[in-house]
Design goal:
Layout (H helix, E strand, L loop, with lengths): L1 H25 L14 H15 L15 H13 L1 H6 L1 E5 L2 E6 L8 E5 L21 E2 L2 E3 L7 H16 L8 E5 L8 H12 L4 E12 L10 E8 L3 E8 L13 H15 L8 H10 L5 H7 L2 H15 L1 H7 L2 E8 L10 E9 L6 H14 L3 E3 L15 H13 L4 E7 L15 E9 L1 H5 L7 E3 H18 L8
Parallel strand pairs: 3-6, 3-7, 7-14, 8-13
Antiparallel strand pairs: 1-2, 2-6, 4-5, 5-15, 7-8, 9-11, 9-12, 10-11
Helix pairs in contact: 1-9, 2-5, 2-15, 5-15, 7-12, 10-11, 13-15
The structure holds zinc ion.
Length: 489
């Protein structure tokens, strides 16, 4: 027995030494090169002004079931027509019930086109602690403030500005270049559905689609001090499950055992405690860590760069140390709504909780719902499942479109580490899987952690220099990708 323990210990020490040597060898430093993009002070001010003007228009998404009113969207589009006269006069324009699709025809009709997208709608701004009026578009302290400044009007402004500049410079794309902007991403992306249906009907397929998603963020991963550009290559699904408990109702002065809310509470506690979804590290997640590892501090590099050894440890530790850790490894379940009787002294004859599930790639919507059903049955509960969807497809991270974007980012933002990213939220872009294999969810804009936290919250804002970089990046990317020198490698 002693001998077995000794051998096991010896093997572990040897493996640890191998891992440490590998970690030391893989170490890379960020090389301070001159970025391939730059902007002037005048341009920076102009872009901020453009963004401010569209932030001022409260293009708030219609509520579920509410009639869509396009008045504000039309106002925003009128402003954009003035801001981008060349885009709106030279590109073919299709209005799809408020959602915009613009096509810049390429010289070679045999080449598949690329599409840049971003939504016009914003979530409401009902929080009380806004420093500036959320629809003032205030430009202050080097930032543009307001609802939509980041999600997602900065993306729209950057993309349209880039194409406007390329048109002004007489650039002629080899392949078609599209701009798409929907009016209801925050509600479920029906505009994107209709846009994709239009493209399909025309028989149009695309080589690459770029939408919001990842951005350039510092402190993205532990032990990584360099800014990190995370390109979303897959997004989790989303679905709600309503779990209902029935009872006999009655007066609350003589409560029987196991009333509806008690059973629901047991169910909620059990699901929360057991976290019953399958844990698995998909390749995107391991690549996310492995690609960042060379730039991390030694202890993190040792672990992240040697997943062949430390993956089992990571599977246990990751969900415990980070809420993202759990979301990267499994379907998540958030209890978001609940209800019981209509008076404090009445036992409910029906009570419910709503579980918001984010199905993982390896455990799709149906399988994730089955897990919930199993626990619900145990507590004598009924399950209702309105429509939802599974996780998206995965864009090939070794494919040429991902690699090309990465290459452009390395040149434009040489101080950044570029990694693939598993998105826990959703975007319009998954709808484009029907016409494109390479959906890249990334907005080339630097964001602070405060700015990230302000997404769908109070005090949303974005840096002026960040959006100026964003414009220049899209311009650079289109120039390279749709330029005559582009070779499909
Ligand atoms: Zn968005």
């Amino acid at each position: 027995m002693k001998y077995v323990i000794l051998v096991a210990l010896l093997v572990f020490v040897v493996l640890l030494i191998i891992a440490a040597v590998r970690a030391e060898k893989m170490k890379k430093k960020i090389i301070r090169r001159k970025p391939a993009i730059s902007f002037t002070e005048e341009e920076e001010a102009l872009y901020a002004q453009r963004l401010s003007e569209i932030v001022k228009v409260p293009t708030i998404t219609a509520k579920q079931g509410e009639e869509r009113d396009l008045t504000e969207f039309r106002k925003m589009q009128e402003i954009m027509r003035k801001q981008y006269p060349l885009v709106f006069s030279k590109l073919e324009y299709v209005d799809i019930d408020g959602s915009m699709l613009l096509r810049w025809p390429g010289k070679d009709p045999n080449k598949l086109g690329i599409l840049l997208m971003g939504h016009q709608d914003v979530v409401p701004a009902e929080e009380t602690d806004w420093k500036y009026d959320p629809f003032s578009g205030e430009i202050e302290g080097g930032c543009v403030h307001g609802r939509g400044a980041m999600d997602c009007k900065c993306t729209v402004m950057c993309e349209f500005s880039a194409i406007e500049e390329l048109l002004a410079e007489g650039f002629e794309p080899e392949c078609d270049v599209y701009l798409a902007s929907s009016v209801d991403e925050e509600l479920g992306g029906f505009g994107a559905d209709a846009t994709v249906a239009y493209l399909k009907e025309k028989g149009i397929r695309l080589a690459a689609v770029m939408d919001e998603g990842g951005a350039i963020v510092t402190n993205q991963l532990p032990g990584l001090s360099a800014p990190c550009a995370s390109i979303g290559v897959v997004e989790k699904g989303t679905t709600h499950v309503k779990v209902i408990a029935h009872g006999d109702g009655g007066h609350s002065s003589t409560p029987p055992a196991n009333t509806p809310i008690v059973r629901l509470s047991r169910f909620v506690t059990e699901v929360e405690k057991k976290k019953p979804f399958k844990k698995h590290m998909i390749e995107v997640v391991s690549r996310m860590f492995e690609d960042a590892a060379p730039y991390m501090t030694f202890p993190m590099r040792l672990i992240m760069g040697n997943l062949w050894l430390f993956k089992p440890l990571m599977m246990v530790v990751l969900p415990k140390v980070s809420k993202f850790g759990e979301a990267f490894l499994s379907t998540t379940c958030a209890f978001t709504m609940s209800g019981g009787s209509s008076a404090p002294n009445v036992l409910p004859d029906e009570a419910y909780v709503v579980c918001n599930l984010r199905p993982a790639v390896h455990q799709n919507r149906e399988e994730s719902i089955e897990v919930i059903k199993k626990y619900a049955k145990k507590h004598n509960l009924i399950v209702e499942t309105p429509p939802g969807h599974s996780a998206s497809n995965i864009t090939d991270i070794d494919g040429k479109e991902f690699r090309f974007l990465k290459q452009c980012l390395n040149k434009a933002y040489p101080d950044c580490v570029v990694i693939p990213y598993y998105m826990t939220g959703g975007t319009d872009s998954r709808k484009y899987e029907a016409v494109c294999k390479n959906v890249l969810r990334f907005c080339p804009v630097r964001m602070t952690n405060q700015q990230l936290a302000a997404m769908h919250a109070a005090n949303e804002n974005i840096g002026m220099s960040a959006i100026a970089d964003g414009v220049k990046f899209y311009k650079y990317y289109v120039q390279q990708r749709a330029g005559a020198d582009y070779k499909a490698k």
